[in-house]
Amino acid sequence: MTLEVKDLTISYGRKTVLKDINFKIPDNTIIGLVAPNGTGKTTLFNALIRFIPLEKGEVIIDGVKYSNASKDIKALHKKVTFFPDQAELYDDFSGYEHIQMYRDIWNKKERDIDGIIDRLNMSDYVMNKVKTYSLGMRQRLCFAMMIAADTKVMFMDEIMNGLDPVNVELVTSVLQEIKKDGKIIIVASHLLENLDDYADEIYFLNHKDVYYTYDRKKEVDEYVKGYIKHDDVKDILPLPEGTMYLANNRVCIPTKDMKKEEVFHIMQRLRTLSSDSVSLGPLGTNEHYLRIYKGEQAYEES
Q1: What pTM was computed for the model?
Q2: CA 45 – CA 5 distance, rounded (Å)
C-alpha cells in the first residue's frame, strides 16, 4: 500500500511555508528528507501527523483519507509515530519502561522488547534511570521506542544526532531491516552521505515544495569526484562538458564518454590536488545538496 500526500499547503498567517506538496510512497521504502534549516522539514512532519492542521490538501494511507476531524486524527495516530524529542523522556524512568510504554500505547500485540534491546546493544544500561544516560544512549532509546511502537508510518527527525560512528552504522542497519516489514519511513537528517547508505529516495525541499527527488536506483551515470581549490582547477583543464564545480571546492567530472584509461588518468591528476579522497560513482545526496542549495560555480579562468 502507500502513503500519499496531495496538494498539501501550510501557512502561518500570511506566510506560506509549504505549497501544493505532492508525493506517493510505497511500502518497504525509506525516504530521506533534506533541506536547510527553516525551509519546512519539521513543518511537513507536524502537518502529516496533524500536530498542526492542514490548510489545504489530503493525507491518504492505504487508500484511507485522514481529515482534520478529531476521529480521523485519532485513527491516524494509530498508524503513525514521530521520533520522540529527548526532552520528552522521563528522567526517573528506566529505558525499559519507556520502550514498554511505547509498545503498550501503539502496539497491542506482544512485541519482543528484549529482542529490540539486544539488537540495539542496550542491555548494559536499559534498566538504569534515563537521567544517567549520555546523549547517544538517549538517542538509541528514542529509536528503540519507535521500533516498539511498530507503526505503519514512521517520521524520524535527526535520528543519528549524538551517535558515534559505530552506532550510526547500527541504526542504519536496523532501519534497513524494519522497512522490510511493510514500513514507510521518512528520515530528516543533516548526515547527507549516511542517507546514501539506507534511503531509497531523497526528497529535497526548496521553494515551498519537493523541488527535486533523487532516486538512488536510477542514478547510474558515474563521476570522478574530489575536493580542489579554485586556483588549482586550471591544472586539470580542459574538463568535459557536464562537469560541476560546487561550493568552490567540490568537482564532479562526468565519465560517460571517457575510456577506462582516461578515467584512471583524470583520477590520478585529481589525487595530486584534492584535499580529500577522490572517488568514482554516481552523484550522491551531498552533491545534489550542494547543487540545489549552494549552486554551481564557474571553474574556467576568465
Answers
A1: 0.90
A2: 12
